[in-house]
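Explain this record to help learners:
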Amino acid sequence: MPLTLQEAQTVITGAHERAAKIAAPVTVAVVDEGGHLQALGRMTGAPPLSAQIAEAKAATVALFRRDGAALRKMQETSPAFFAQLDRAVRVPILTGAGAALIMRGDTVLGALAVSGGMAPGQDDECAEAALAVLAT
């Protein structure tokens, strides 16, 4: 069964609740398994560009079936390959913190990404909170 809109909104709410606690206005994007945007939530005060960044990071994670940290390592070892990828997909390929797969068992349902954290680790912290809310 695919990720429902209600589940996507729950993911966004979980990330936003954590972001509010750490005073980090963020945007959260949730995409389906094919990298297509399913839901987007931009907190008041989140940088305008954070919406596009979150969507691109989430789509990249979904299409590669790897989280942001693993993709960053791949990009470092194969920069020429990653430099060419933007020509092959509808959204820019963007690796970075705060991006994770959404799984049900062994099945990839999609991905989420957070953008806009003002300090290192805030995007990751909000993404982890989002996944934890979905798991409950």
